[in-house]
Amino acid sequence: MGVIGNGWLGSALAGAVLDAGFVKPQDLSLSYRSKLPDRFGEAFWTLDNQALADRSDVVILCVRPADWRDLNVDVKGKLLISVMAGVPLDSLSDHHQTACVVRSLPNAAVEVRRSYTPWIATPKVSEEERTFVRALFETCGVQDEVHSETDMDYFTGLSGSGPAFPALLADAMMRDALSRGIPVAMARRAVNTLIIGAGRLMEMHETCPTEIVQTFLDYRGTTAVAIETMRAAGFETAIACGLTAAFEKSVSLGDASKHL
User: Fold this and answer.
1) Is this model's pTM higher than 0.85 or not?
2) Helices 164-179 and 184-205, interaxial angle, to 10°?
3) How far is residue 178's CA from residue 191's CA, in Å, rounded to a whole number?
């Protein structure tokens, strides 16, 4: 397996497959602009992306869409997995000379093995290869094969950008705490623990978010007042607008990729 891209996502994916024993270090090739991190051990390191593709059965593209335009790599019919936002299957297939393409979108939680990864494949991707893709993304979290590239564009905001949104909420809560005179360190501990604890509770009980919200609304306490006030101030509208903007940006990236 070869991974093209030296950003956090490429590094996190490589670390996940190695930690899970999914790929042996000697069977992993990495294209890095800088020296290969020691933690990848016996993995093959190169600056030549075509050399990486030639020695790999599966090639994973972990570059920014803006950088992809200049990435001229012929994968010669092998399985190509893209983790780039926006770039559609047909553009990937044409540009890299393969009919076996998977478009996927892990998120930043790959680093802690808690990513949600939607993906879609071209018809030429075999069931055996699809099984490989499922197992690959399960080394770093949860995966789903989706039904359309429109779904992929929507998931760009919902889950691809997703880890940023709890952080945005946490930042707003922390700023409010600071405005009330709460010390910085204390505010950070309170907010971070809240976000982490809520996530773990949802994971443990597999609870629907709607049920959690309704439980607090039914209790009619301070939390219910806070929820109703946030909603009245446009909380849900702001979320919907943000997700729509991310969706439209993903679509525009795909349109741009067709004019290479």
Assistant:
1) yes
2) 140
3) 11
